[in-house]
Design goal:
The structure holds two protein chains of two kinds. In chain A, strands 2, 4, 5, 6, 9, 10 and 11 form a seven-stranded mixed beta sheet that branches. By secondary structure, chain A is mostly beta strands. Chain A contains no helices and eleven strands. Chain A has strands spanning 5-7, 10-13, 19-24, 31-37, 44-50, 53-56, 65-68, 75-79, 88-95, 104-105, 109-113. Chain A is 0% helix and 48% strand. Chain B is mainly β. Chain B is built from no helices and ten strands. Chain B has strands at 4-6, 11-14, 19-25, 32-38, 45-50, 54-57, 60-65, 70-75, 84-91, 105-110. Chain B has a five-stranded antiparallel beta sheet, with no helix packed on it. A five-stranded mixed beta sheet of chain B has the order 2-10-9-4-5, with no helix packed on it. In chain B, β4 (32-38) and β5 form a beta hairpin. Classes of the chains: A mainly beta, B mainly beta. Chain A binds chain B through residues 31, 33, 35, 40-45, 48, 50, 55-56, 91, 93, 97, 99-100, 102-103, 105-108, and chain B through 4, 6, 8, 31-32, 34, 42-46, 49, 51, 87, 91, 93, 96-104.
């Protein structure tokens, strides 16, 4: 596709439910990032992949959060046993490798845990 | 100290005004800087990249002060369409490629 695609756009989950959020990066982009954005805040880093390798997962808030990118393209962010504080917009971004490269964001998945 | 700090605002300015806001960063090894714009309920989009002392693109000017570790964004002749949140992102090699965003500064341009 032309841009980063995320699905679903909106997800309502009952507390305790598991959810899976999908990200389709721009074709050929080596780097893939996941961010969590709460209302009124900037995007908070969760994890970073270079191809299929997860190089940094220091931002994942707990072991309930898990991300994978098995073939170096599509990525899935999984949240187990969702809690109300997980309610946020989850943004995925992709870029070419290197410091001078722009990161392109998807439209995000708005997760509401009730 | 947070890695990136921005005044959240909001900055309320009339159309045609000049407005500037700063972003301070803690890591002196930061090499590149990015300003992203985020409209309400939309994803961030790159506004400007800064690799040296500054950059200018039309009404937008970014200036870097390495000694004081801040980068500013100046918007001249503000338009209603400039209303958005502006996010600052410094990049340094030790960040393993990840981008750390500031909280963002919200600008509201009034008619």
């Amino acid at each position: 596709g032309a841009g980063v695609s995320q699905s679903p756009r909106y997800k309502v989950a009952k507390r305790g439910q598991d959810v899976a959020l999908r990200c389709d990066p721009i074709s050929g982009h080596v780097s893939l990032f996941w961010y969590q954005q709460a209302l009124g805040q900037g995007p908070e880093f969760l994890t970073y992949f270079q191809n299929e390798a997860q190089l940094d997962k220091s931002g994942l808030p707990s072991d309930r959060f898990f991300a994978e990118r098995p073939e170096g393209s599509v990525s899935t962010l999984k949240i187990q046993r969702t809690q109300q504080e997980d309610s946020a917009v989850y943004l995925c971004a992709s870029s070419l490798v290197g410091q001078n490269t722009e990161a392109f964001f998807g439209q995000g998945t708005r997760l509401t845990v009730v | 100290r947070k890695e990136v700090e921005q005044d959240p605002g909001p900055f309320n300015v009339p159309e045609g005004a000049t407005v500037a806001f700063n972003c301070t960063y803690s890591n002196s090894a930061s090499q590149s800087f990015f300003w992203y714009r985020q409209d309400c309920r939309k994803e961030p989009k790159l506004l400007m990249s800064v690799y040296s002392s500054g950059n200018e693109d039309g009404r937008f000017t970014a200036q870097l002060n390495r000694a004081s570790q801040y980068i500013s964004l100046l918007i001249r002749d503000s338009k209603l369409s400039d209303s958005a949140t502006y996010l600052c992102v410094p990049w340094h090699p030790s960040n393993t490629g990840k981008l750390i965003f500031g909280q963002g500064t919200t600008l509201q341009v009034k008619p």
